[in-house]
Amino acid sequence: MIKIKNAAADFIREPLLNPFGFKGGLVSELWQSAVRLESSSYKSLGLGIQSVLWSDAKVFAENCPAGGNAVMFAMTCHAAKLIKGKTFENPEELLDRLLPPVLEYGKLISDCPSMRMTFALNALVPVDLAAWVLYARENKFDSFDDIIPDYVRGAMKHRHGELSKIPLITYGIGREDIEKILSDGSFVLKIKIGSDPERDGDANKMLSWDKSRLSLIHELADRYSTEHTDSGKIAYYLDANGRYPDKDTLLRLLDHADKIGALDRIVLLEEPFDELNEVDVHDIPVRIAADESAHCAADAIRRIELGYGAIALKPIAKTLSMSFRILNEAYKRNIPCFCADLTVTPIMLEWNKNFASRLSPLPGLRTGVVESNGDQNYVRWEELCSYHPLRGASYIIPVGGAFRLGYEFYRDSGGIFLDSEYYNSLF
After folding, report:
1. Based on the domain organization, do 304 and 171 belong to the same domain?
2. In terms of residue numbers, what domain contains 184?
3. Fewer CB atoms < 10 Å away: N or C end of the chain?
4. Is the pLDDT assigned to residue 24 strictly greater than 80?
């Protein structure tokens, strides 16, 4: 058993280059949280990225940006307070004990009884990652392979030599930037749809905007070819973040995609509907993926029953512990998984890369992928890269649109078990 003698939390406000548009809203900064855990023998550090809009749009809408972030950080601090002096055998057990009280605390301080579980999971990411690092140090583990639970090892048996970087096309990214992303070698584009162009919640205006956006991107991407997809064409990954009100509206978008020759390019369409809208999607002509609605393993099973054909895993947003469990349930049902981003820092990206590098490729793709858009969005991206404990390693910066992994990456586990001098200095 591991006893936590002390736990502390802190945060840093990181500005973004431009307002980040999704879910019909905009964010201009992201709070980076950090948690330090201490046992009698070791200390450990876990980082997190707070995404209030992604994790619960209602909490975001009912608070000013700093207010929503303050709620989430208070939940992280509450978790740190709860575990002081407590013991745990493994991080999954610790998460099970923390999630219910932290979620209830969040509902109380936000005055939002409907707060989504993902909001609490987002708040618990730095605690969970710190627990995994402490667990590794207590058990003398130095490899990500060592901490993979036995029950999910079958789903994580790949060792990709490279991971293609999926960039994010948000509402505000213009023609020139899209062309640069394509010329840099990206072959899967994650496209945010569901804009609210006049801020009036009109679904028809949203649909018209999405049609025009898809037409523009398809016009540009259709000029490129790639050896990394079965079709030889650039693939599209549409992310609606629950913005579509019903199946009919979504099918109208897909009819448009079919008319312009883009339908067979769509390898994923993520979270088209609000999670409370449990519509069956078996008859939708593209692979529907669950993200925010798959809070936990039980939720993932429910989405699969509704016809969802892929699950977005986010060790950096829904905790590593929960991601192992969700992957296990998807693997048992032959449902492919992939790792999506939360605009994380270079160090947190290594956790996603460790996870993604061990997953089977998505249907239609010939290589492993990982979404990463921090370089597109952070003002201080170069500085953030310098905080990596193995800065300069060949696998940190993508080359030709892909992270080259190889022996060093697997030997080092991307540096996730090493200390960052910069983030340690917070404590």
Report:
1. yes
2. 157-424
3. N
4. no
